[in-house]
Amino acid sequence: MSYTVGYFVGSLSSTSINRRLAAALQGVAPKDLEFVEIPIKDLPLYSPDFDEDFPLVAQDFKNAIAETDAVLFVTPEYNRSIPGALKNAIDWASRPYGENAFDHIPAAVIGASVSSIGTAVAQQSLRGVLSYCNARQMTSPEAYITWVEEDYADDGSITNASTEEFLRGFMTEFRDHIERVLTVLPRPDA
Ligand code: FNR
To answer: pTM of the prediction?
Structure first.
């Protein structure tokens, strides 16, 4: 069985370390996981005024989530929470009322920061949001990544053996989590 994982990069930065982390994670993931990025940068700010008639960019965004088996959030921490662009994207995905794209979806969160906090506070915030959205989150292992530039090569490979082992283990656990959720508790529209 293979699974499609839609991933969100919470940063809009052209030099994002979280985008590089997302690439590194794909390199160490089990081979039966396929990855597709679900971009968030072109979404306008959400308003309930759009609920009657979502713009095409938001329809495409929600359709992209619907085509995945699971979602992975790779995000920085901004002022002890998640970046506004990511929260905006989640708000779009959750609406209109009754059409929440994250309902029952297997999900995992991870993030990198240049500080020792490793996005721990942002991830707690994100977990609360995803709980409300009824996503089936992997709760363990947690992954709070303090970015060490020398541990990652430009081609996306990981050059530090213990970092590679940790991230490989994270993705292996996520794969098993996806299988458990989809076997025991399939999404309603599956
Ligand atoms: C930050 N940064 C940051 N880091 C952290 O550990 N906790 C925080 O609360 C914040 N807050 C914060 C706010 C804003 C507006 C910016 C721009 C940055 C620093 C952050 O970890 C660093 O910029 C990372 O490189 C961001 O990840 P990307 O964008 O490179 O993926």
So the answer is: 0.97
